[in-house]
Design brief:
Structural class: alpha/beta
Number of helices: 9
CATH topology of the largest domain: D-Maltodextrin-Binding Protein, domain 2
Distance between the termini: 26 Å
Oligomer: single chain
Number of strands: 15
Shape: globular
Strand content: 25-35%
Strand order of the largest sheet: 2-3-1-4-11-5
CATH superfamily of the largest domain: Periplasmic binding protein-like II
Bound molecules: adenosine-5'-triphosphate, 1-O-pyrophosphono-5-O-phosphono-alpha-D-ribofuranose, magnesium ion
CATH architecture of the largest domain: 3-Layer(aba) Sandwich
């Protein structure tokens, strides 16, 4: 049975379970449950602190885990990224009061508050800098105001917490994070490739829609240039002479723009439908 670690709380917890449900796996119904067995799929899910997940996967006690890229880096565990799950996106950044520290080169010699000392120390080592890393558990943005540190290094999503604390970011992000599946290098037990394919199906279904429309046959080339699909669009004859029906997958982010262009070209009955899941 495949054994997989899932975040039990925090930002990544709900979306991780939802993604697995969308891929056809059973998930816990009570948020206090720590284990959920999915017999038909031969998978057992273990609900763990996202920060601990790399440790379980790295030791080989669990086969796979869902965690954040920043948490994996912070752990220092030699687990590998198997698939980017495209949720839980955030950057990991330096921040300080405006006008105090203005470039990343100036972080050397300072007191840096963070809940991710592993990420910060990796950066300092790579840039040949020395600094005093103050490890905190959370609410790191308060550290400068309270005099514990000169700057912070923390997760930034909307930037609202930084603004509220009167801090501004400086320099480039130390890293760009999102939820990922991690595994142990060289360890690919039965069921892993099926799980990855299923999740890839969910990712595609989330980023594409199915577009269907009718168009005069003499405009087909122009229309399909707008909707080339993945392999190629499906074209079917219509009962009405001189018209065809076209179906193609289109990037969700582009669909309104593509519909406008198709309508202007002469296409009609342009319909968009969600894709529940797919295997490409
Ligand atoms: N707005 C956000 N705040 C915190 N973490 C976020 C955010 N958006 C994405 N993440 C990602 O979530 C992971 C951190 O999750 P974790 O559960 O440890 O902290 P949390 O969501 O802040 O919850 P808690 O503060 O209750 O521990 C990291 O990979 C981080 O990049
Ligand atoms: O850029 P934003 O959208 O404001 O999000 C980022 C903030 O959210 C998280 O804090 P959280 O509320 O989880 O508290 P914590 O610091 O105690 O973990 C994170 O640690 C940042 O402080
Ligand atoms: Mg937090």
């Amino acid at each position: 049975m495949l054994r997989i670690a899932i975040p039990n709380k925090g930002t990544l917890s709900q979306p991780a379970s939802q993604m697995l449900r969308d891929a056809g796996y059973r998930q816990r119904t009570d948020p206090k449950d720590l284990i959920c067995r999915d017999e038909p799929n031969n998978v057992e899910f273990f609900y763990l602190r996202p920060r601990d997940i790399a440790t379980y996967v790295g030791t080989g006690d669990l086969d796979l885990g869902i965690t954040g890229r920043d948490l994996l880096v912070d752990s220092g565990v030699a687990a590998e990224e198997v698939l980017d799950l495209a949720f839980g996106g955030a950057t990991f950044r330096w921040a300080a009061p405006p006008g105090t520290i203005t470039s990343a080169a100036e972080v050397g010699g300072r007191r840096i508050a963070t809940a991710y000392p592993g990420v910060v120390e990796r950066y300092l080592a790579e840039h040949d800098l020395k600094a005093d890393v103050v490890r905190l558990d959370g609410a790191v943005e308060n550290a400068v105001r309270l005099g514990v540190a000169d700057l912070i290094a923390d997760v930034v999503e909307t930037g609202a917490t930084l603004r509220q604390a009167g801090l501004v970011t400086l320099g480039d992000p130390l890293l760009k994070s999102s939820a990922i599946i991690i595994g142990r290098p060289g360890h690919a037990p039965a069921g892993v490739s099926q799980l990855v394919r299923r999740l890839q199906g969910v990712l595609v279904a989330r980023s594409y829609v199915m577009l269907a429309y009718d168009v005069p046959a003499n405009l087909l080339e122009n229309a399909t240039a707008l909707t080339p699909g993945i392999e190629s669009p499906t074209v079917s004859p219509l009962h009405r002479e001189g018209w065809v029906a076209v179906q193609a997958m289109v990037q969700r982010a582009d669909v309104h723009h593509v519909m406008d262009e198709l309508y202007e070209l002469g296409a009609r009955a342009i319909l968009v439908t969600d894709i529940a899941n797919c295997r490409l």
